[in-house]
Amino acid sequence: NGGYLYKPYVVKRIRTLDGKIIEIDPQIEKKLTLDQQHWNWIKEGLLEVVKIGTGRAAFIPGLNVAGKTGTAQVVSLAFKKIKALEHHAWFVSYAGYSDPEIVSAILVEHGGHGGSAAAPLARELYKSFFGIKEPEKIISETKEETLSDENQ
């Protein structure tokens, strides 16, 4: 978004009981200033995370999703065999690369790794938001036939 930090809000508008609509305008808290080339590098890096990096599980053909995976350590690695003590997994991303329409931050407690636990959830969120349906996998049975030697 070019470095703007907006005050978080949950709703875009409110409709009162008498039908009046109250718009909630985003408020800018502050702005981070960087050269445009630096912003471009950051955005390209986030896009590559989903295309070929740790966020591949969020990849959707035809939709540019950009994001960053992460893992928040809960306890020492010696305890990672106990599910309740596994690390938290997260994935922060946005879709509609050139003109973002939706942003998500997904945290899976004790999920292990962001790429395997949180990124697939972002994929499902974006598919639902954009109304993307993937073709069903078709499994066909292979039929073997023996051809006669007659016409060979």
Q: Would you give the CATH topology of the domain at 32-132?
A: Beta-lactamase
Judged by helices, strands and strand pairing, the structural class is alpha+beta
Helix fraction bin: 10-25%
User: Are there runs of 5+ residues with pLDDT below 50, and where?
Assistant: none
Could you give the distance between the termini? 67 Å
Strand order in space, largest sheet: 5-6-7
- Describe the sheet with the most strands: 3 strands, antiparallel
Classified by CATH, the class of the domain at 32-132 is Alpha Beta
CATH-level-2 architecture of the domain at 32-132: 3-Layer(aba) Sandwich
Identify the CATH homologous superfamily of the domain at 32-132. Answer: DD-peptidase/beta-lactamase superfamily
Morphology call: globular
Mean pLDDT equals 87
% residues in beta strands: 15-25%
Tell me the number of helical segments per DSSP (H or I, 4 or more residues long).
2
Find the count of extended strands (DSSP E, 2+ residues): 7
Radius of gyration: 23 Å
